[in-house]
Amino acid sequence: MAKPNYQFEKRQRDLAKKKKKEEKLMKKQQAKATEGGEPGAEPQPADDKPAAE
User: How many CA atoms, within 13 angstroms, populate the side-chain half-sphere of residue 8?
Assistant: First the structure.
C-alpha cells in the first residue's frame, strides 16, 4: 500500500485557502468601488504612464 503524501495535501489546502482569500478580497474591493461610484461600475485599472507635466 502506498503511503500518503502529506506535503502535497498540505500544499493543496494552502493553495485553496490562498485562492479563497484572494477572491474574497477582490469581491470586497469591487463592492467598495461600486459603493462610492456609479452602481454597476467596474473599477478602472491603474495607468502605468506618468502624468504629463
Answer: 3
Nearest to 43 by CA among 26, 30, 27, 24: 30
Q: How far is CA 14 from CA 11, 26, 42, in A?
A: 5, 18, 30
In the block, which residue shows the cell 502535497? 8
Instruction: Give the integer Cα–Cα distance in Å for 50 and 29.
Output: 24
pLDDT at 1: 85
Read off the pLDDT of residues 8-28 as tens digits, 9 standing for 90 and up. 999 999 999 999 999 999 999
Neighbours of 33 (CB within 10 A): 14
CA distance 50 to 45: 14
